[in-house]
Design goal:
Elements lengths: L2 H47 L6 H11 L8
Length: about 70
């Protein structure tokens, strides 16, 4: 094998390893994003089922709003 062939073999090998690393990192990033979006959609589903679970202040304001039409005089 001549020197030029060894150089070209090294270049091809280097390019192959480089692109494999790029593809693997893109694939890993895609998996992380899909897991993150699945977690967010799960959290959004939980929030839709129980919207007052994380913000207890909305319970008080909603109950005040709902009872605002009552004028009770003691």
């Amino acid at each position: 094998m001549s020197y030029n062939q060894k150089v070209w073999l090294g270049v091809v090998l280097f390019c192959t390893l480089f692109w494999l690393a790029v593809i693997q990192s893109v694939h890993t990033l895609g998996e992380r994003l899909s897991q993150q979006s699945a977690q967010q959609s799960g959290q959004m589903a939980k929030a839709a089922i129980n919207p007052h679970a994380k913000n207890p202040h909305t319970i008080a304001t909603d109950s005040m709003r709902n009872n605002a039409h009552f004028n009770v005089k003691a």
